[in-house]
Write the structure tokens for this entry.
Amino acid sequence: MRYQFTVTGNRTEAQATVVRSPEPGEVVVAIAGSALGAQPGAEIAGTVLAAGDAATDWLGRQVVVPRLLPCGECPSCRRGRAVRCTACMARGLVATHETVPARYLLAVDPLPPAEPELWRWAALADAASAPYGGLVRAQVAPGDLLVILGLAPRGRFAIALGRALGAHVVALGPREGRELALAAGAHLFLDGEQFDAPDIYPILRAEAIALGIDPGSELKVLETTATSAGRRRAIDLVGQGGTVALLAGGTASHCEAALRRLAETESSLVGAGACHPDLFPELGALIARGDLAFEPELEALPFAALAEALADQRCGRRHRLPVLVP
Ligand SMILES: [Zn+2]
């Protein structure tokens, strides 16, 4: 039996439903972890319980289901722009089972000693992979000076990933996030509330030189808060040249003067939605090597705690990514 969970008022309601039978290329995943990130219900890891005729190789496998499940066939998909796919599979509510195409599953068994618990891998479905997609879009390379804006789980995964890619990582965020940022691997923390945007750039360069970073190194900025203030600051930062990647989500706002400077300095502004599934195998390898750890960023909660977890997130009471477990 499949249960799906919804929130009414401040209560979690469980509803028994039938598991949809898989089409030939689909599988049914029994969910071990369902992360409450950008799209609750669509960030899952679990074990394949049933499979269609063309997907029987997946039976019993432990898998991560990417948040984005594009069709793989349309013109956008063929150009590698999966986020613009108009035939992406619609994802359901938070539930104990989900029927999904097998095509983009990431097999993670045997689970590596560095991350031996399947439920934690739900973080890879989006919270850890969306920042990776942004870093790839920004072409972060060894020796780059990389500024990460925002210290929620996506930001902290971005710090660890930036470091794994060989960048010098500067975390910019609220003062109380300092220890978390340094624990995630930031080389330097800057208190985001202490500086007005125009002041940040020279301070950043001075700090970079003090860290021994080549002052001519490429500046890359990944904005993970998806807020107007964060985006304005990110664009201000690359106003002297560089690349800014803005993670999707939240609300947009106009910042015309900064955008003009962005154009004048031939900077790049790249959007980054959910990570392309083709990038998941390299992410899995990073985790297996121990370059990225889920453990300090996650918190397991029962499915029945959905309402409480969402309410806490709205109030900013949870610093770790809630993952619902059976
Ligand atoms: Zn498509």
Observations:
- The chain has two domains: 2-125+295-325, 129-272.
- The chain has nine helices and 16 strands.
